[in-house]
Amino acid sequence: MIKAVGLTIVFLCTWCESRGQSRTTLFKNFIVIDGSGRPGTLQDVRIQGDRISLIGTLIAQPGEQVIDGLSQYVLAPGFIDTHSHHSRNLDDSSQFSSFLCQGITTLVVGQDGSSYLPLQSYFQDRLKIGLPVNLASYTGHNTMRYQILGKEANRLATKAEVKAMKKLLRADIKAGSLGLSTGLEYDPGIFSSKEEVLQLAITAAHMDSRYISHLRSEDIRLEEAVEEIIEIGRRAHLPVQISHFKIAMKSKWGIANKLLARLEEARAQGIDITADIYPYDFWLSTLEVQFPNRDFDNRASAEFALRELAPPEGMILSRYDAIPEYVGKSLADIAILRKEDPADTYMYLIKLAREKNAEESVMGRSMTESDIVTLMQWPHTNICSDGFGGGRHPRGVGSFPRVLHHYAQELKAFPIEVAIHKMTALSAQHMGIDMRGKISHGYFADLVILDPDAVIDLATVQDPFVLSEGVHQVYVNGQCVWKGSTYQHNLPGNVIKNTRYR
Fold it and tell me: Quick check: helix, strand or coil at residue 37?
């Protein structure tokens, strides 16, 4: 018998897993929270190969590995990150811990309008290398624009160019893409017409796939952007999802219930509109994103952004290749160093980065906790990270444990079984993923063992790389990939494709 951080693991057959043979594992005496949203119950779960085979009161079989939950540990479905950028971490096993420590077993990438293209080649390459977790992807609108429009992508597309993008999208969906993703607040998507996006969404709908969107505005024109995605859902007749739902403008704080009432009205009209959200009051994006008119030398626009969208002390550089020493400093800090007004500093930072063609990103504190809670409580909002390991936003290592600890336990926004539902079965439903997200007979054995009293996020803005704690083990397709805060050097992940073309 081996003790592992209070979790008893009985190895009756230690050699079978290392030899890759299909043996059974029994999870005994666990509080099983199955992903449905129902409260947990004390049960046993047996897996065989990559599937869940039995649930109930079970007796260990000869030669079976038994893991004892001591009637205090939770066994839950693996968490599905519906808006993820962790694809950046899949080439470096030292970064796997960023998502495994959170209990994530499926990454859904290709977000904000950016994706690998063509997906068929990307999927083949990833499977050849091996995956620690499951991987699904959307096809990015911005990526297609760059492919077809080239250096002239920052303009309206012609009918012929939209037709060419449709061809790329159809090929990608046949290769397994979940559908179309847009990043309409970013270049070059911000230059697209509503009709262009609608035509691509209709193409996705004709192939039984989906639409997910970083809205055209999350602040100044938020209500108008919400109407755009509702209209796409209505006219294209496909499921539509709002990415990382937020209210990122000071004078609009408090309108969460009004927005949700509008979404409920749309749902009552038959529009399948949903959302995902990450559990932080600040975002990570580019310095340019708060200039919707792209008037980066307009001082009035800079002043408005710092007054209404994110204050100087709440804007912290997470990357600035033009002057790397600025990373970790706030706009207010840099303004003091430069002995100038923050608005002038803001315009200078954008100007210098553009002149040097240098990468940059910034974290902006723009949301309020009460709005986050209200949006997160909506029955049609699931949890995502919108993060990646190595990024300076703590969401890259802390999102899912933060929901379990801060929102479910500290704020009591919902019980733990609802939190887990929003990370598992609801996420699978919103992505159109079958046979994952629940502990149910015949489902894939993507599982998480966690201590409900100890699960916690530890990363902060000041110290963004500290891994979360309390997730003891993670299983992907029946194989253990995370145990005792350590990656287990297994690569059992699969590519999850659009159900029509898998």
Answer: coil
Q: Give me 336's structure tokens.
A: 């003091």
- H or E element in which residue 173 lies: helix 159-174
Q: What pLDDT is stored for residue 356 in this prediction?
A: 97
**H or E stretch at 334:** helix 331-338
Q: What is the pLDDT of residue 499?
A: 79
List the chain residues with pLDDT less than 70: 1-22, 502
Q: Find all residues with CB under 8 Å of 262, minimum gap 6, and list them.
A: 223, 226, 230
For residue 348, give Cα distances in angstroms to 10, 274, 310.
61, 39, 17
The span from the CA of 426 to the CA of 364, in Å, is 28
Q: End-to-end CA distance of the chain: give it in Å, rounded.
A: 42
Q: Which of 239, 266, 280 is nearest to 428 (CA)?
A: 239
* Residue whose pair of structure tokens reads 């209505």 in the numeric block: 234
Quickly tell me which residue has 């079989």 as its tokens. 61
Task: Give the number of C-alpha atoms closer than 13 A to the C-alpha of residue 388, restricted to the C-beta side.
Answer: 18
CA distance 426 to 431: 9
**Angstrom distance (rounded) from CA 233 to CA 252:** 25
d(CA 299, CA 348): 11
Q: Which distant-in-sequence residues (6+ apart) come within 8 Å of 415 by Cβ?
A: 39, 408
Give the per-residue pLDDT at 12. 35
Q: How far apart are CA 87 and CA 396, in angstroms?
A: 12
User: Helix, strand, or coil here: 167?
Assistant: helix
pLDDT, tens only, 5-52: 345 544 333 333 434 445 899 999 999 999 999 999 999 999 999 999
Taking every pair of C-alpha atoms in the chain, what is the biggest distance, in angstroms? 74
State if pTM tops 0.90: yes
Structure confidence at residue 179 (pLDDT): 98
Report helix, strand or coil for 210: strand
Which pLDDT score is estimated for 14?
Answer: 36
CA distances from 312 to 98, 135, 221, 338 (A): 29, 37, 22, 14
